[in-house]
Amino acid sequence: MVKSSIFLFFLVFILSFCNNILANEILVIQSKENRIFLQLWEGIKENSSTPVEQRLLPENPAEKKFLLNKINSYSWKVIIVLGEDALLWIKDSLQKDIPVVFGGVSDPERLTFGDNICGISITYSPSVVFGIFKEIFPELKNIGMIYNPQRSKNIFEQAKKDATLWDINLIGYAADSAFGLAKGLGELSGKINAFWMILDPVVAN
After folding, report:
1. Is 53:27 a contact under the CB 8 Å cutoff?
2. Could you report the per-residue pLDDT of 106-125, keeping only the tens digit for each?
3. How far apart are CA 154 and CA 26, in angstroms?
4. Who's near 135: CB < 8 A, 6+ residues apart?
5. Per residue in 170-203, pLDDT tens?
6. Which residues are CB-neighbours of 83 under 8 A, at least 6 positions away?
C-alpha cells in the first residue's frame, strides 16, 4: 500500500507538467488483473482531471496489434503502464515520443528505454529492508530470499552486498517457476530466521 501511494504521488507530480502537450486523454495499460493494479487504477482515476482510458494488455497477437495501432494513431497526453509485461511491450512498440510513466515494475534499472519513459520501482532498496528487519529483530542473522533469476537477479546481487553491512547472512535460492518456489521454501526451511518476499512474477504469485 505504501508503494502504491508513492507511485500515485509520483504520477500526480508528473501529470502536473503535462499541461502543454497537445492531447486530451490518458491511456492506462495493465499487464494483468490483480489487486495492486486495481488500487493504482482507482487512484489514477481519482487524481486525474483529464479523461482516462484503461486497457488490459491482450495475450492475443492480433489484439495486441489492434491496440498498438490505436496507440500510435492518437496523440495521448501520457501513457501509464502497470506491470513489467506492459512496460516491455510498450517500450519496444511505441512509435512516438509520448511520455510513458510506469509502476508495479521490479528492478527497472536492469531495463533500457528512451528518455520519454520514467517511473518507480515496486521494490525497496535492500539496505532499507535490512534496516527494518534489524530494527524489529536486532539479533537477526539469517534471512532467506527466493528470487526469479530472469527478473530479480540484480536485486539479489545487490542484497548480498548490502547484507554484510548489517551483519546479516542472506541465503538465496533461484526459482523460475511455481515448482522451483516450493522447492526453494523447502531448501530454506531450518536455515533462516526470517524470509524476505520480493515482488516478482514467480515469488509474489
Report:
1. yes
2. 778 778 888 888 887 777 78
3. 32
4. none
5. 999 999 888 888 899 999 999 999 999 887 666 6
6. 30, 31, 32, 37, 57, 104, 105
